[in-house]
Amino acid sequence: MIQDVDATLKELLVQKASLDTTAIDIKFEMPNKEWAAAVTKPTINLFLYDVRENHELRSNERMLTRTNNTGVESRAPVRVDLSYLITVWTTDVSDEHQLLGQVLAMLVQFPVLPPDVLKGAMQTQPVPLRAWIAQPERLPNPWEFWGHMDHGMKAGLNFVLTTSLEPDTPTDVQLVTQTVLNLNRIGT
């Protein structure tokens, strides 16, 4: 499922930010010192640093889909937040800022991802994929984050995408399709 989110985000960048993938790489790797040293051309890196259930969107609701005399019962999907740190890597900081600004300007246009960029399992999500960009309550502590990356701080965008997971297999159930009323006479 996560690989489908990555493919969807790459397609979003290519289609909606009009990125030329022959001139700019799009990667999903941890931006440590060794990785940064191996970058040979401008690169947008989307590092997935956190995955957790979105408790604000949690639902205990059960859903019933009816077909003739039977139905299928399922639990509401579990909503999961995938948090990415988006950074740009070039040889010049002004180029990094320009490309990061281009990515930011595109991402704010899509609080819900458009269907034409969805890949794999993201195409059949029961609810639309919601996105948040640069939300302060969702940011990692930059000093702690970059302190673990073996090099200095770098400008980046925090991007959170909420997707859905089916918690269990839907169950076939029998439906009540008729009412039977028995009347008995009491007494004489």
Question: Would you kindly provide a written description of the structure presented here, covering whatever features stand out?
Answer:
By secondary structure, this protein is an alpha+beta fold. The protein has a single domain (2-58, 80-166), classed as STM4215-like (2-Layer Sandwich), CATH 3.30.2000. Helices cover 22% and strands 30% of the residues. It has 4 helices and 8 strands. The protein has helices at residues 2-16, 33-38, 93-107, 142-147; strands at 25-27, 43-53, 62-67, 70-75, 78-89, 130-133, 156-165, 171-174. It has a 5-stranded mixed sheet with strand order 1-2-5-7-6. The chain has a 3-stranded antiparallel sheet with strand order 3-4-8, with no helix packed on it. β1 (25-27), α2 and β2 form a beta-alpha-beta unit. The N and C termini lie far apart (70 Å).
Helix-strand blueprint:
Elements lengths: L1 H15 L8 E3 L5 H6 L4 E11 L8 E6 L2 E6 L2 E12 L3 H15 L22 E4 L8 H6 L8 E10 L5 E4 L14
Parallel strand pairs: 1-2
Antiparallel strand pairs: 2-5, 3-4, 4-8, 5-7, 6-7
